[in-house]
Amino acid sequence: MAVVRERRHPNLKLPLPDSAADRRPRFPLPLPPTALTTSRPTDVDRLSDLEKLQVLGHGNGGTVYKVRHRRTGALYALKIVQSDCDSSVRRQMLREMDILRRTDSPYVVRCHGIFEKSCGDIGLVMEYMDGGTLDCLLRRQSGTFSEDFLAGISRQVLEGLSYLHSHKIVHRDIKPSNLLVNRKMEIKIADFGVSKIMCRTLDACDSFVGTCAYMSPERFDPDTYGGAYNGYAGDIWSLGLTLLELYIGHFPFLPPGQRPDWATLMCAICFGEPPSLPETASDEFRSFIKCCLQKDSSRRWTVAQLLAHPFVAKERDLMAKMEGLSIS
To answer: Protein kinase domain spans which residues (predicted)?
Structure first.
């Protein structure tokens, strides 16, 4: 495989192992001509206006807090990365800042303020999603998710990817822990630290960024699985694996609890058959997953095609009817 000859393997472990960030500094990222050209106004003027309530999580060189605006009472998630963090972490943060300050979609987590302190610390004030991540929601559940619920997740994530891809942004790390949910069961795409703005049609898209467990076969060996690594198609593969995991309750390529090394996982993705659904799955869901998990990236369905797939279209029609009833 080309990856063995030409690439240095990152040191990655499951579950959800994050690879090292792209080591070539290319910031700030330029916007393509078709993308948004101005930053949205922020809703938080000063970090001192925010009161820390609790720690939501740690990781990747930063801490995320649940905070409350002292004047308005609005709740936010505040991500702080210290100035002495690893240089790769700082580059990821800068990449995420550059994308978030220009995105505005109900299916992408919203940024309400970006702050760079004189000491070098960076703060991101994000939309607070009170349901946490889909990964946490799955762990809290006594069972797995139903097909009806997964159809709703699929539609919302595809709408988010449609927005991002139309602005030439590939996420490169779609997985349950990067999809946030609130109590209204709205799903939003988050964590753009390894995302990329494709400035030109033939832009190269680095293979080894993101989480290797959710990487598509062409990210390991593009010559065999489609002729080139296509970041847009890679997002679709990751979505397919995410939905499978939420349906069966564990990472699809492995038995529950197994923790293989990187080489074992690469072989499973590249040489094994795509994971199959249990017999309880409907034909529509089987078809949808098959369209996402085509090993040849050139045969994988696009976002637009998947939004028209019967598995998702049925849920879209239902939502449209409900909106029509609420308006009348």
So the answer is: 50-312
